[in-house]
Amino acid sequence: MSGQRFLDFADARVLITGGTGSFGCRFAAQLRESGAREVRIFSRDEKKQFEMRMSSPDFTYMVGDVRDRSRLKSAMRSIDYVFHAAALKQVPSCEEAPFEAVKTNVVGSQNVCEAAIESGVKVLVALSTDKAVKPVNAMGMTKALMEKIVCSYNSGQYQTRLCCVRYGNVMGSRGSVIPMFRSLISRGEPLIVTVPSMTRFLMSLDESVDLVVRAMARARGGEIFVRKAPACTIMDLADAMRIKYSPRGIDHKIVVCGSRPGEKLHETLVNEYEMLRAHEGDTYFTIEPEYRPVDTSAGVELGAEYTSENTRRISSVEDLGSMIESAVSSESLL
C-alpha cells in the first residue's frame, strides 16, 4: 500500500461502510496485504456481498444500512478505523428522489459518526466528492452536508478523529463513464456525450486509496483532504475510447445529448473560501476546519479555486489511452 508509510494497519480492525463498491473492494484488498487483523464489510447489497465473499472469504461481512444506527453500533464493536463510503451517488437518481439522498448521505453519515464515537474508534474517514463544492444537485448538496457533519464533530472533545477526503471522478469505478463507453462500443452503439467541452477530474483507484490512508494517518480532526488530479474534456475521453476500443476507430459515432439535470460544465475540488484555509503541497490540499484558526492565505490570489478547468489538462489520445488502459485493468480486478 503506497500510503502505508504513514500508517501501520498491522493487527488493526477496519470497517468499510459501502464496502462492496469499487473503492471498498480495492481498499479492502490492500488492507489484507498490509496485515490488518480484520476487514469488516458493511453494506446493504446482499448480492454484491455474496459475489465479494466468493473471491475474498477472509473478510467479515455484515448486511446493514447506514440509516440503521443500532446495526451500525453492532458493526463497530472492536473497530479501530472506519472508512465511510456508503452513499447514494448517482446524480440522476438523487435528483429524482432527493429525500432518499438525505436519508442515506446526511442522516446515515451522522449515524456513522455517532456510532464511531460511541464505540471508541480511533479515526473515521468519510468519502466525499467534488460535487459537494458549490453544489447544484441533490447528491452534491447532501454530500456537502455530510462534510459539515463529519468535520463538526471534531469541535467537541472526542477521542475519535473524524475527517473527509474529497475526490473527483475515479476512472474505472462502477457506474463511471469509462465502463459505460466500453459497453456502448462492445454493442456497436454510439457514444453518448453530454457537452463536448465539459471537463472532469481523472484519478485512479490506487490514488484514491492512497488519499484515504494519508488522511487516516495525518488527520488532527475536521480536515478535508484533497488529492490534485489532471482533467480532460468528455469529448477527448470519448475520442480516446473509440480509437482504442472500437473496430471503427475515429469513425465510431458520437451523439451529443446535452447536459443532464444537476450537471456542471466544470467541477471544483477546492473553492475560493477554502483556499484561504488550505495548505497546498505538490500532490495534496489539506483544508482546515472553519473553527480552527489558521493562516494559510499568504500568496493565494483572492478568488482562486482549484477546478477541472484550470488543473493540468490531458488531451492527447496516447496519454488518455494509457490512463484508460490502467483503469480498465483495475476494473477487471474488482
Helix content: 25-40%
Structural class: alpha/beta
Which band does the percent of strand residues land in? 15-25%
Taking all Cα atoms into account, the compactness measure Rg is 20 Å
Distance from N terminus to C terminus (CA atoms, Å) equals: 17 Å
For the biggest β-sheet, the strand order reads 3-2-1-4-5-6-9-14-13
The average pLDDT is 91
Number of strands: 15
Describe the sheet with the most strands. 9 strands, mixed
Task: Write a structural description.
It is a single chain. By secondary structure, the protein is of the alpha/beta class. It contains 11 helices and 15 strands. It has helices at residues 22-33, 46-55, 69-75, 91-96, 98-119, 138-152, 177-186, 205-218, 234-245, 272-275, 317-332; strands at 13-17, 38-43, 60-63, 81-84, 123-129, 161-167, 191-193, 199-201, 224-227, 231-233, 254-256, 268-270, 278-280, 284-287, 306-307. The protein has a 9-stranded mixed beta sheet with strand order 3-2-1-4-5-6-9-14-13, sandwiched between helices. Strand 2 (38-43), helix 2 (46-55) and strand 3 form a beta-alpha-beta unit.
